[in-house]
Amino acid sequence: xxxxxxxxxxxxxxxxxxxxxxxxxxxxxxxxxxxxxxxxxxxxxxxxxxxxxxxxxxxxxxxxxxxxxxxxxxxxxxxxxxxxxxxxxxxxxxxxxxxxxxxxxxxxxxxxxxxxxxxxxxxxxxxxxxxxxxxxxxxxxxxxxxxxxxxxxxxxxxxxxxxxxxxxxxxxxxx
Length: 175
Fold this sequence. Notes:
The chain has 175 residues and is of the alpha+beta class. The protein is 49% helix and 18% strand. The protein contains two helices and six strands. The protein has helices spanning 23-92, 99-114; strands spanning 117-120, 132-138, 148-153, 155-158, 161-164, 166-171. The chain has a three-stranded antiparallel sheet. Strands 2-6-3 form a three-stranded mixed sheet, with no helix packed on it.
């Protein structure tokens, strides 16, 4: 409509008040809230499943590494008598008569050390019941009581685990 001044009359503004909530809207709001809670529950379950899976991967990798260590340790333990024989053979060689055998011995030791094998040769050190096995006791005025006088058979560790104790002669003074 146009007023006498020639301006258009504006229509009254619609009411800003929301219509009362119907039963259908209330039901839909409740369904939306329930769906949101279910989505949160499912998301939480998915996160837990992902964490469980990652823990399973870590545990499996750790168990595989432990199995590999046990297998390597068993293999090295079975090689120790051969290694002892090789050490005795090299020690019995006169001078530098067979340098190839000595070089082969050094290379073998290098490979075994790189794999984690460590020799225990405690001559002159105090007796350690965790690393040494006494095979004999002897008297020696130059060494203190309880000192390893001689190593009868070298012991070995594989990555800090004892594979074979060193067999030793320990000083025991008669009193």
